[in-house]
Amino acid sequence: MKRITCWLLLVSVGQFVGAQDLTHPTDMGLPESNFVRPDPSDYQTVLENGLTAYVARADQVPLVTLSAFIRVGTVDDDKQGAAESLLESLRHSGPANLSPDEFTATLKAMTADYVVEMHDEWTEISLNVPVEDLHLAMTLFAGIVRTPGISSENISKVALAVVPEANDLQGEDGPALYEGSLTATVDRFRDLIYADHPYGSKPSGDDFDELSVADVTEFHATYFVPGNVVLSIAGDLDIDAMHQEVAKQFGSWSRQDVSKPPTIVPAVGSKTRQHSFPAEKLQSWLVFGHHLPLVPDRDQASLEVMNYILAGGHLWTRMTIETRYKYGYTNDASGFLTQKWFGPGTYDFRSYSRPEVIKPIYKNMLDQIFRIRDEEVSVEELFVAVGALTEGTFQIQYLDGYSAARNFALEYLRYRNHERSASYVDRIRAVTGKDVLAAARKYLRPDEMQIVLVGRPENLLN
Amino acid sequence: MKTLPLLLLIAMSLIAQGAMAQSSRYDLPIKEHLFDNGLRLLVIERPDEDRVVGKIFTDMGALNETPGQLGSAHFLEHLMFKGTPTLGSRNWTVEKGLHEQINAVEDALTEALNRSRNDLRERGVFHDYQHATSSPEIDELRTLIETLNIQVLELNDEGPMKQWYQAYGGTRLTATTEQEYMKFDLDLPADRVELFLRVEADRMQNSVFRNFDAERMILVEQRLGDLNRAETDFREAMNSLVGRVSMVYVPEGYNNDFSQYTREYQRELYETYFVPNNTTLIFIGGVTLEEMVPKVDQYFGAMERKPEPARYQGREPLPSAEKRLMWRSAVLSPRIDIRYQIPGVGHPDRPHFEVLEIALAEHLRNVMQDADIDGSLDINTRVVHTTRFGVPASINFEFILADSDQAAVAEKTLLVEMARLSDENIDVTAVAFAQKALRTKWYRTAADPNSLAFEIGHFEVMDSWKTLQPYLEARDATTVDTIRKLIGRYFIAKNRSVGVVTTAEQQP
Fold first, then answer.
1. What are phi and psi of A250, to 5 degrees?
2. How far, rounded to the nearest angstrom, does the alpha carbon of residue A195 sit from its chain's CA centroid?
3. Distance between CA atoms of B103 and B84, rounded to whole angstroms?
């Protein structure tokens, strides 16, 4: 009776447990949070030309990160293709005074980590280097931001790359066509949700025939101006010396008018519909959701708490419990609130699994959407979400100089103040069960779900 | 051409920096306390920080599994998220009785499966997760387990550890099991570090394996994710070509294994390895060793030292010939994969292989380009999902070809050049660049307390946390002579395994 012996062992462990402190976490008397968000004014410097920089010291290791956040994205691109061409130039050509090969060699010699991302409404350029290369890196960084090398080669390269992408959606309901994955499924979802919307606008091959180096240069000149750029610089540096360096590299940049943000039309919702992309893979991928209108400040906190309880926390959430923990259906079932700066965002839910359980996954996730719209969340759920948001995810945004400078820079670029981060904790703590219910009813729209499934045809939803 | 002198300057400074390597670059102010029961506590104090990263490493992993139960260490990690009598149960007295019944039924099920083995055994060659042998008796026992499990679920709050970690500001709640370790991670406000100790001590001593059969399907799910990648099957075949004895080359569970796990086997693993003298706690952030010692003692001090779990010492027999794998595939890009066995962390040669990896990659890319062979070269030490081991593993030269017709010439070019480099030195600037790249990579790791704590814990299970700093310093001491000697010593025909991937149409 080996089994009984084993179990007796556990029971004896249970008795031994008496020697171990097993006070329940809620009874441990854990201290109230004493976290205070850093003061952004301790980091901020503003040049006469309107350029703002956040500089922070983080001296655990001899590295420095130089970042520029620019209020321009693909949605600002009236001349289709200019944004993508500029992105290509920033990524691969560097500053105009270097050839692309020289730029690549310089990055390599510095063992730099160099990232450029252009979103719908903002752009980020980041360069992380050893402090021994800071002087060279700063010159390079300023050159990339102020005078990137824009060439017809960049435009041709992007033109070649967009052609296959334009064919992606031809596979819907047709034979299978591409490697299935969650990323590909999310891309399909976004393509559908923004099919006739500026956020979904993509240049075609023809657009590049009309596009010149002068167009891309003009696009850069319009948006890359001091008042439209916020820097974040952190690392093993001397703060005063860095302020001087910022002034030296960017002070001669002429002040110019900042373009007004684009006016983005609202999105029109559609009735719930399934979009199937058959793929002969071992798993299937599911993404479903709808538009999210611009959310007013007064609703932000309750929406965030609601999302955390429903599916946003990824671990202890209603959707994870009802798919993974109870039934072992999937590794993950989560919700994603994607808010845009000027127009409609998306609210979507994602999962993946072996094809035969996709239907119960979808059903259980949808049930939770109905449930959170029907009844107030529990006090315990509210306690967990508020704690996680205020003492977890919010705190780590200011964990060190790198993250604090970065988050302050992005907040300032978007709002031109720091009121939201200053009031964040109080706003989240003020959310009630009724607020959560109201947010669920207002922002969850089960009758407008666009359901995208990549998987085996025999297991698609009906 | 203002920039060229700049680049030259950087190249010169690279060499100068390498030459004046200082040990202080890698100073790790780790403080250690060893408790009477064998539990090891490591702390890096950062008094100005509001938060602390906590990790608990157990010296066990896939290397300790029994064939037929592969992946069981990873599965145990999943089970250890299911709570304890005091975390997750609404009525432990009743729930305990249900677990006793489930365990008894599982015994009966194992007996029934054994008894029916010759009637029911699947004699087919292949197997997948959907297959299950059965009989009316077996079906009945399985249904009974399911029924009892549903009753447990009714008494059970799912995910209690994550719930309370999240509620009190915990982030980065992850866990990982690889060949040589299992670890649980958390980042939380420093003044709440006791929560980590309370939960992890409970997890280590009192885990209850709830919802066992549903959870095993999560492993199936993760395995399917691996198999969806065209490379997986080939890479696993290459691993088995390189090694035939060492468990380091074995994947973390095949689909057939997932259905074989039993509660009894899982508990045996749990009770053997999750003992204080096989455990290391690591903290980096706003805590001190002085304040942590009594706190750790409060939660872990009552645990008794247990028999020392045996360390895995897998090593391959002396190779006697080069081995080859021909892989024809309709989906995988054509490639050449050349592998050599190399020593594990703890051996004096191992750190130099990291310099070699980078220095040789750039050199060989240029050689292939000069020979008009199109493709991309990656040199790595990855086996399954991990790149560093405390046991011998392999270094892999993976050249993905643009044209499969160039497979033979690509292989020959690589081998000829490596043979040449066993006699002649590689360019000194290539070594200097590799050293700078490794230093920068280390700084990026050390900048993040989560990554730094992982490296410390990983070295503790591979060798000792005390050898991490010398390991980093040894890389700075690598010379062109060292690289040449490594090539001559290890990159020999008898130690070589070669995989050639060609398109399915390319039949001989």
1. -120, -10
2. 21
3. 16
Say what the pTM is: 0.93
pLDDT in tens, A450-459: 999 988 766 6
Residue A457 or B368, more confident: B368
A142 CB neighbour count, 10 Å cutoff: 21
Q: Let me know if the fold of A42-162+174-250 is the same as that of A273-455.
A: yes
Residue written as tokens 């088995």?
Answer: B240
For chain A, the domains span: 42-162+174-250, 273-455
Which among A384, A394, A379, A404 has a CA at the least distance from the CA of A425?
A: A394
Q: In a 3-state reduction of DSSP, which class is residue B279?
A: strand
- Which B positions 363-422 lie with beta carbon below 8 A of chain A? none
* DSSP track, B300-369: HTTSPP-PPPPPP---PPPP-S-EEEEEEESSSPPEEEEEEEEPPBTBTTHHHHHHHHHHHHHHHHHHHH
Contacts of A282 in chain B (CB under 8 A): 224, 227-228
Could you say which architecture CATH assigns to the domain A42-162+174-250?
A: 2-Layer Sandwich (3.30)
Q: Which chain A positions have a beta carbon within 8 Å of B217's beta carbon?
A: 328-329, 354
Identify the CA nearest to B223 among candidates B130, B125, B339, B124.
Answer: B130
Predicted confidence at residue B328, as pLDDT, reads 93
Asked if A25's CB is within 8 angstroms of B199's CB, the reply is yes
With CA atoms as reference, the chain A residue closest to B171 would be A392
User: CB-CB: which of B164, B189, B205 is closest to A35?
Assistant: B189
Inter-chain touch A105–B222, beta carbons under 8 Å = no
Cα angle value B438/B456/B243 (rounded, 5°): 75
Contact residues, chain B, for A134 at CB < 8 Å: none
Query: CA nearest A96 in B: which residue?
Result: B3
Pairwise CA distance, residues B175 & B186, whole Å: 9
Distance between CA B6 and CA B3 in Å, rounded?
Answer: 5
Q: Which of B258, B253, B262 is nearest to B141 (CA)?
A: B262
Terminal alpha carbon distance of chain B: 53
**Under CATH, to which class is A273-455 assigned?**
alpha beta
Q: In this structure, are residues B167 and A387 in contact, taking their beta carbons and an 8 Å threshold?
A: yes
Backbone angles phi, psi at B28, to 5 degrees: -120, 105
Q: Which B residues 257-276 touch A at CB under 8 Å?
A: 264, 267-268, 271
Q: How many alpha carbons lie under 13 Å from residue B102 in its C-beta half-sphere?
A: 24
| Cβ of residue A183 closer than 8 Å to a chain B Cβ | no
Which ipTM score applies to this complex? 0.92
Q: Which residues pair with A44 in a beta bridge?
A: A54
Contact B169 A392 (CB under 8 A): yes
Q: What is the pLDDT of residues A159-168, one digit of tens each?
A: 888 755 434 4
